[in-house]
Amino acid sequence: MRRHRYSETVRDLFSETVLSVDKLIMPVFVDENLTGTRPVSSMPGISRYGLDTLPGYLASLEDSGIRAAILFGIPSRKDHDGTEAYNPRGIVQKSIRAAGTLNKLVVIPDLCMCEYTDSGHCGILNGNGVSNDETLESYKKIALSYAEAGARIVAPSGMVDGQVAAIRLALDDAGYNEVMILAYSAKYASTLYSPFREAADSKPAFGDRKSYQMDPRNVREALREMELDISEGADIIMVKPALFYLDVLARARSRFDVPIAAYSVSAEYSMIMNGVNSGLLPPGSINEAIVSIFRGGADMVITYFAEWLARNQPV
Ligand SMILES: [Zn+2]
Questions:
Q1: Rounded CA gap, 313 and 294, in Å?
Q2: Is 240 designated active site?
Q3: Which of 5, 25, 31, 176 can pair with 147 through a Cys bridge, CB separation 3.0 to 4.6 Å?
Q4: pLDDT in tens, 214-257
Q5: How far apart are the first and last CA of the chain?
Q6: What pTM value is reported for the model?
Q7: 158 C-alpha to ligand 1 centroid (Å)
Q8: Domains and CATH numbers, the chain
């Protein structure tokens, strides 16, 4: 076997996994309350952008070679029903319009309500839980407002049953049959989201999300979730988080032929970046982590390292 490893050129020739910047999606936070930029202290190197600085940042991502960004909005107003999420002049809708001038960068709005409800939950509350079908009505409105603003891909992340079918039908009925759905299909109730909650202001005011996000102990259930999303019309299915869930990804890859995305989440980023910044880990750990997600079966990876990799790594 060592014949295949004797030089870098030969190793590259024999490599089974190619890390390409074309396959990376950069998460971006846009904050309606902000002018300029503000660093996210729990995520070294990551900032929130105001609507004034966002277009320049997206253009710089495009220049770096990044081809897709997933967008999270922080509104100036939250309410019980999260109505700002489908305001035609809301922060994400304005951002999609602002990004419309970019030729090569695809902006994918995340579609959920946790940044918009005063409870921080992902849907309409009914008693102490998220009401499934009332929430679907809101998701349809959000999807239409994103499509009207010019989005070509929407990414429902609330883990509410039937969300893909509801959004697909609403889009088709309104003539937006060209708009794709990137479905957060197997999204686990993970501890690895905590830095994100600072970044996106989306910590639940009470309780947790275990009644809609998946139990980390389950993998067959994840395959059922993915199968349902495919049957409901998902163009891309997703596993989230990535690094602790590579088995889920590998099982999905062997079962399904649709495109699969993996979301390497905020704590995956912060753990590795803090390791690199403190000298505990060499920067090659970043490459190794993201390669492992592709090797596990992802077609595309959403990662906070996307920009770092585009700028620091000849990928
Ligand atoms: Zn949510």
A1: 16
A2: yes
A3: 176
A4: 999 999 999 999 999 999 999 999 999 999 999 999 999 999 99
A5: 26
A6: 0.96
A7: 5
A8: 13-312 (3.20.20.70)
